[in-house]
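Structure tokens please, single chain.
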Amino acid sequence: MAKRNSGNPNTPERVTGDAPSQLERHQDPGLPPHRPRLADKDPKAANRAEKQVSILFIVSIIGTLVFFIGYFGVDISNDVEALRLQNMLLGLGTAFAMLGIGTGIVHWAKTLMPDHEVVESRKPITKEADRADAERIVGDILDESGIKRRPLIRNTLLGAMVLAPLPAIAIFRDLGPLPGDKLSHTMWDEGVRLTLDPSGTPIRAADVTIGSAVHVIPEGLKEAEHKLEEKAKAVVLLMRLNPEDLDPSEGREDWGYEGIVAYSKICTHVGCPVALYEQQTHHLLCPCHQSTFDLTQECKVIFGPAVRPLPQLPITVNSEGYLVAQSDFHEPVGPSYWERG
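Here you go.
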């Protein structure tokens, strides 16, 4: 009969019985029997799988070509529909380029590459044998993959791998204008009237009420050669406060008109459009990363990742009572960068 514990947790007693004194040893069951796939038994099935893999690689090549057709072949200068078409071609091309090469490699591995389970003991590699062992390992990999025996897969894979990275290079090239002159100048200039976005209607100072926020573009933007690019730099927010609420710094006392001020709509963090205005607090908010700018302090950053105030557009009124720019921005608009002075 087995002995029972006395109930004291500090005693080393444990249940004993008729169990063997030595642990039974479990024999190694070994590897499960290999179950051949259809392609292992039927040459026709193997040829069919090879063609399927090659077709997937060709799909990847076609996807890359579609990307470049959209990137280089669609003119988006002044056409929103063309921009939508380009975005669709870029998205579909990238998707099929990545999907084709990824699915093709997976299908190749599952249907044609050897799937035998092996156990290989790790052996120390001496320095003298490093090169020979490395060559042997690479040779074994090439032999097992079957790439030497299947030129159709090899050639389509090489084509897909050569073309697949090219869209990424094109996208990196088009991340935005290089720092410098392109961001330092916009369509704003002395005497250019402020107009409503998107109608292009000129704005009279008397029509801007206290507490309002208006999206503004420069007059003549619709006729610009590169309308979208110019709008991305020149769009501003126009607001009217009580003049007593504003605290302009020295030299900026006349950059507004009777409490009407204009600031770049492009956030200085990563370039998102600042479009939220809190009338009671006079705060401008960027919806992307919650950068907050205080309008009463020349759009100073009071919260969020932005590190630079929104650039202010100096404005005044002309003889007809329309709001006009005094000049261009006095600093580059948009995100900060390392070469900014």
